[in-house]
């Protein structure tokens, strides 16, 4: 353990001296006298990038030195490896959720806005009348209830689900990331915030859906089984359902669709919902802190394996 720490310390100090060399060379080339703040700022950036790339390169170098022994641990494609962002279980939950929610929106909105031509078209021409339309709304509702229960079991019962649930809880870093992003938008910050597995944008998206689901299922069930409740319960439930339904629809179209479809970085669509993968470039760009963590963990694992192999080879 101490040897490993020594190895990493050695690498850190080597990176620091390399970054000093780079800056000294840059100063030599431009032949101007930079301020201490300028130097510190550049040094910080250079050191960070060197640390980043050196971990990746270390993985690669060790694999090349031990091509057979380590090949199973290392990703096949060194050019552009991919990282699993969402496993099968989570992707199936998302698929059932979006099919249910789209069904619920298409069959719910015409009830809220019956005077619109498009509402008449959907209910009468497309679905064959109010009876069918409300029946389909209830089928969509069952889909959403299944997703709600499924997600709850997944978040409590599976290791990945539990990890992601805790990572989704908002913290102080989200508040400072938000401020940093705002300052970046108005040009007061040179770089935007660096995110881990979930950014504050993704957390907002997740909790909006979570909260929306509780309200929509609760109020929908009151309307569905209205004979079990006093009349004022139905009135409150319908008001909640109607308004939250519109809010949920708008938040999906404006917030969620912007992030996963219309944002120029992913337009016309991010396919992560389908294959669950992110490329290395996407990981570095969108989740640099998570990327760094994975690479560091792998480096340590590889050093451990390489040492074991060396020991075995040297007797
Ligand atoms: C994203 C989810 C949902 C959306 C956007 C949505 C939207 C709507 C809207 C806009 C209405 C019309 C309200 C009005 O008359 O002003 C409605 C009615 C209704 N919704 Fe939903 N809803 C959703 C989920 C649910 C769920 C989960 C349930 C059941 C648990 C449900 C059950 C009902 C019922 C019973 C009605 C009354 C009309 C009918 O009998 O079909 N809805 N919904």
Protein model, in words:
This protein is mainly α and 315 residues long. It folds into 2 domains: 2-81 and 288-313, no CATH class; 84-279, Fumarate Reductase Cytochrome B subunit (Up-down Bundle), CATH 1.20.950. It has helices spanning 2-30, 36-65, 88-112, 117-126, 130-157, 159-168, 172-185, 200-224, 231-262, 272-275, 280-286, 288-313; strands at 82-84, 277-279. A two-stranded antiparallel sheet has the order 1-2. The protein is elongated and about 80 Å long. Bound molecules: protoporphyrin IX containing FE. Protoporphyrin IX containing FE (HEM) binds next to helix 3, helix 5, helix 8 and helix 9. Residues 101, 104-105, 108-109, 111-112, 134, 137, 141, 144, 216-217, 220-221, 223-224, 241-242, 245, 248-249 line the site of protoporphyrin IX containing FE.
The strands making up the biggest β-sheet line up spatially as: 1-2
Largest sheet, if any?
2 strands, antiparallel
CATH fold-type name of the largest domain: Fumarate Reductase Cytochrome B subunit
Strand content: under 5%
The whole-number mean of residue pLDDT values reads: 88
CATH architecture of the largest domain: Up-down Bundle
Alpha-carbon Rg, integer? 26 Å
Tell me, briefly, the overall form.
Answer: elongated
Provide the domain count.
Answer: 2
Number of helices: 12
Helical content, roughly? over 70%
Low-pLDDT residue intervals, each spanning 5 or more residues: 73-77
In CATH, what is the homologous superfamily of the largest domain?
Transmembrane di-heme cytochromes, Chain C
What small molecules are bound in this structure? protoporphyrin IX containing FE
What is the CATH first-level class name of the largest domain? Answer: Mainly Alpha
List the secondary-structure elements in sequence, H or E. HHEHHHHHHHHEHH
